[in-house]
Design goal:
Elements (H helix, E strand, L loop, with lengths): L2 H14 L8 E8 L5 E2 L17 E10 L3 E9 L5 E6 L12 E5 L9 E8 L5 E7 L8 E8 L3 E3 L8 H31 L1
Antiparallel strand pairs: 1-9, 2-3, 3-8, 3-10, 4-7, 4-9, 5-6, 5-8
Length: 197
């Protein structure tokens, strides 16, 4: 293989991602469900609300969005191994309707057991998500937690910025076209009058 051909092939592979390393970002935060607001948490299988143990469970809600779509890993570590529970919502969470907008729930992390909750899930970029950290048994499972989200994009706390609908762009283009037409119409008589003088 000629040196130029080899260099071109390497450049092509590098730009297509064959050699590119996937960046991974982790967002960490901590808090406590002690003294937090309460709700009736969903069951892990999302088949309904927990009829006994989940009634009056204290929780903390964390709103966020990611800038890139892809698979993200969620992990929660409960201080002193109280039985924590994670619930993911999108685009919003309301304690009065805890089954609305729910995507996923996990009680015990499959690899780490009680005191650890987590899951992997595909997220969309620039969409608001809410991660609720709560306990399995209300009145028994609460306390400090350490949470993390790891994935290909940057996690930002808060609500995703509004993305204009296609109709908004169409209206903007129509308005711009109207203004340009008016400017041309005004300029046309002046150009014609100036040429004849």
């Amino acid at each position: 293989m000629k040196p130029k051909t080899f260099a071109a092939a390497l450049l092509l592979l590098a730009t297509t991602g064959a050699f590119a390393q996937t960046a991974s970002y982790t967002y960490n935060w901590n808090g406590s469900t002690s003294g937090g607001p309460t709700f009736t948490r969903p069951e892990e299988g999302l088949g309904g609300l927990s009829p006994a143990l989940g009634v009056g469970a204290s929780y903390r809600a964390f709103s966020f969005y990611v800038n890139l779509p892809g698979q993200y890993e969620f992990f929660s570590d409960a201080e002193n191994h109280w039985d924590n529970f994670l619930i993911l919502y999108s685009p919003s969470f309301s304690a009065s309707t805890p089954l609305a907008n729910v995507l996923l729930a996990n009680d015990d992390h499959p690899d780490d057991g009680v005191g650890h909750a987590g899951f992997n899930v595909d997220l969309l970029g620039n969409r608001t998500y809410v991660l609720v950290t709560t306990g399995f048994a209300a009145g028994e499972d609460f306390g400090r937690y350490f949470n993390s989200i790891t994935g290909p994009g940057v996690v930002t706390a808060g609500v995703a910025p509004a993305v204009p609908e296609p109709e908004t762009y169409a209206m903007l283009a129509l308005g711009l076209a109207t203004v340009l037409t008016l400017v041309r119409k005004r300029a046309a008589p002046q150009a014609a009058g100036g040429a004849g003088s």
